[in-house]
Every structure is written in C-alpha cells, then in structure tokens.
Amino acid sequence: MRLFDLLRQRVPVRILPLPTQTECTEEFFHQLISTCESIVHLNPSYVRKALSRIIDSLEARSIYDDLYFDKLYELYASLSSQPLGDLSTIPQDILEYRINEKKSIRIKESPNFISGRGTTGLRTWEASKLLALRLNNDYSYLPYIQNKKVVELGAGTGLIGISLLGLASHVTLTDGDPNLVDQITNNISLNESDTLFEPETYSSRVLLWGGPELAPKCDTLIGADVTYDLLILPELVKSLQLYEYNVALIGATVRNEATINAWEAQLTDANLNWEIIEIKQISSNPEVFDEPIWFDPSGGLSIKVYKICK
C-alpha cells in the first residue's frame, strides 16, 4: 500500500492518504505497526503526528480491530510522553525511496533544509527523484545505463548513483563538497545489505567543475538539479565540453525560466548537441501520488530531462 512507502519517505502528515474501510484488514494494521516501529527511532515526532491523524480518522469512521488497535494506541501512547517538537528541527533523517517493487534506497539527509554549510546537497531534490525512477524503470533510458560506466555530477545525497549500483557496470559519484562525498559513502553503506553490488563497481570523489582535474572517462554522464544557479552554469557547460563521455543526461527542475533559458543558450553557444527528451509535470496538488516516489510541488512544477552529446 502506498501509505507505507510515503511514511518511509516522510511525506507531510497532512497529505498522507488515509486507508479506506476495505483496506483496513489485519494485514494493513500489521504493516502499519511494523512500518512505524521501523522508523520511530529515526523521527519519533513524525510517527506520532502520523499515528494521531490515522487513529483519529479510523475512530471517526468506527473502524476497529481490537488486537491491532490496542497496539497502535500503545505505540502512540509511548510517544505521547515525549516532547512533540517541530519536524523542521530534525537535523538529519534516513528516508527511504521506493524505486520499484524490487528496489528501495535509504538516504540520510536533511529534508527540511534548502541549503546549509554552503551547499544545496543536504537534501534530495525533485529532479534526482525523477532520474532515479526513469533510469531504473523506463526502457527508453536503460541503454544509457545498463552495463555502462556512469559518472554522476553534483551527486548531493547520492540517490541516483546509488540506485544504479548493480545495474551499471561502474558508477562514480562526484560532488564539489568533500563533506557531501563523505555522506555519499555513508549512504552507500546504508544500502549494502539490500542491494546486489560489489565494492569494485563504484567509487566516490570530489570533483570541481571546470577545474584542471577531469571526470573519469565514461559512457554516460548524469546530473540532477545542477542548473539551479546562473553563476555555476558556465563551469558546468565547460565541464560538458571537456569531459570524455558518449551522452549526458541532465535533469533540471524549472524554478526560474530565465535560468533555464540561460542554460539552454549556453549549451548552444558551446556547440553541444542537446534535446529535451522528457518534461515531467508535477501537480500543484500535493495529494497527487502518480509515481512510486512523491514529488513536492513546492520544489517546482516541472522537470526537464536533457540529452546532451558533443
């Protein structure tokens, strides 16, 4: 059921889909309790708020299962004795993103922070979610990834690159911030027990765009939400000119049309061949759940995926 995946992704409590009466089986209550128990140590405030909303909804509709309802109340009561706090004060959390039926990726991040420590890479952004889904699930994207050498630029939390481990022949996750590279390594470790990949099939390293050090030669360059600032576009485009690759796939959330227009103009001026291969529209209604991963409309209402070749 979608509810359990959304709880693991920490979708805002106010928009969590409430179960219908027919969905409230013993199996539902068992999974709800199991899911809450698996994340309560990470974010007790979130679990308490979620349980409060779910229990209120069930009581209002007189939906009960004595055995499991008692267990729900016990869990909720154990949290009620703790200070509720503000969810925005949780500095870091471990979120779980459902890529498909066989793959979920755990990411330690700061989901309530737009930026901090001079970087925007403390949280997973919308274009990263889209590319992680498409590169793993869409057959039109698969030839760029399967058994290919892949380099990710501006990897941030590492969601995309980690999701490709075991699918690509080798993945190099790069970022310009050494602290984020360390965090990427930690996030890889969070997924080692559930993902089939070997240590020699991935690496992570610091890489500054436009600098003297080049990215490793690869089949496919990937990047998501790396076009957010006009000031960094020249270095990014310069890197796309210098690096050795067959194709680059760049996901860009449209937040500012002027920035997107500048990005496209600079690609053209650099004599790079580019095309938009997908435009994902994000509903302005946050309660629309049309993908395995929830997209936050406050982060932008459309995402463009660019295919770039020299």
From TrEMBL:
Pfam (any one): Methyltransf_16
Record-linked SUPFAM superfamilies: S-adenosyl-L-methionine-dependent methyltransferases
GO annotation, cellular component aspect: cytoplasm
Coiled-coil spans in chain: none
GO molecular function: S-adenosylmethionine-dependent methyltransferase activity
Signal sequence bounds: none
InterPro entries: Methyltransf_16 (IPR019410), SAM-dependent_MTases_sf (IPR029063)
PANTHER family from the UniProt entry: HEPATOCELLULAR CARCINOMA-ASSOCIATED ANTIGEN, PROTEIN-LYSINE N-METHYLTRANSFERASE EEF2KMT
Protein's UniProt name: BA75_00593T0
Organism expressing this protein natively: Komagataella pastoris
Gene assigned in the entry: YJR129C
